[in-house]
Predict the structure.
Amino acid sequence: MQSATHSGGGPSFWLVAPTVAMAAFMEVLDISIANVALQHIAGSLSASQDEATWVLTSYLVANAVVLPITGWLSTVIGRKRLFLTCIGMFGIASLICGAAPTLGALVLFRALQGLAGGGLQPIAQSILQDAAPPAQRGMAFALYGIAVVFAPAIGPTLGGWITDHFSWRWVFLINVPISVLLMLLAGTIVRDPAYLTEEREKRRKNGFRVDGIGFALLALGLGAMQVVLDRGQQNDWMASPLILSMTLTSVVALLCFVVWELGEKDPIVDIRLLGIRNFAIAFVLMFALGFVLLATTLLIPQLTQTLMGYTATAAGLVISPGGIVLLLCMPIIGRLVTMMDPRLMIAIGFAVGGAAMLHMTNLYTDVDAKTIAIYRIYQSLGLAFLFVPINTIAMGSVPRGPRIGNATALVSLARNLGGSFGTSLVTTLLARRSQQHQSTLVSYLSPGSTTYQDTVNQSSQLFAQHGMDAVQANQAALQTVGGTLQQQASLLAYLDNFKVLGLIFLTLVPLAFFLRRIRMEGQPTMAH
């Protein structure tokens, strides 16, 4: 079936592709761009750093609730109409976020922004899937990959630069003119495919039925889960009544949701797609990709800022070369996926990415920015081999028609949930492993240790040469040794995280070969 956007493919695809990819880019960027501005937001709105993190939590919770139901909404409302509505609401929400007078207002407006933006990723992918001629479908996934993988890579850099040179409010206001431009372009060139129009007319004739119970269970389950992941470490996990109650709520609600949806004739989320082997494995692999991508995007800038004294902008610049590599490699991978077995590409991606993260365990506190950037480039080469082949396998296993929208929504949900789980895990591991390493290192600083005494004496002499008396010099030396110990404990915790992430990737290499082979000739079809 040819694209409804342009029956012959060609020029129309190259007009549609950058427009819808930019919409997805804008939405994904807002997940990470505000992270580096939290301290400024807290200071400007007279709030604590802990309170300011609700700016992120509210966005992620709202985003997670809307994302999986986008396929159903596209069928009921119309994909183009929903796409334009999401862009417009996202722009309005961004405007009022930038003008928020209090933290409470900003948290509310960010939730509205998350609700508006939640549908942009899967809708963009669905539009690209239908707009691309069969021979260019790999390139369509590559363009979408550039949007959703490159955005988190440059988010910290862009957010830091805007915050340092202008104001945290412009982190949100920058979306307004982009939203206006995207609405004008999308309104002109995007069209609903024939099968979606027919499905919508069929529903209209038979009467619309809303799976309200399914939506309520989904919203409750995913919303509670996102709060647990985002606030768990800060609230000491299950020692907190809030986190414990939210965990139980999430588990019960999601289990009830699965049972309910399996019994529905017209479910709000088509979870039966997970019964297709290729799609289910691709879902797991995309979860892992989101897990590691967001976790490393958090770890590397945080490492350089806390242990090496980098500014927010400089920390972002360290990981930017990796983003540029992804930008350059994605189109090549999009072309290569039509000539090479996607399963082999996925295995290569996980192997290279895993080895790159294990290689990062060689980092030390005096390492230069160039070396860190090279490590990130090495890691990005592995990530580049994953996004397009995983999407190719996932979409190639789903029959053409209305289920495509549900499939793209579930794949996007997998990546977003993976990112949430990944950032939550590394944040927890970082805090707890740092404490463990500190306890271990302290055991070597006994007064009877010759090395310890020599270090303190040398430091004391150095401070004494700068005019301190004996007592002050000794106290300063002890503080210096203590600070060095804490720094080394933190570094070891970061290296533990990179090791865990690397091992996760390497263990997924064999899973790629459990996928059934697909034939990349025109429309991907299952081989027997």
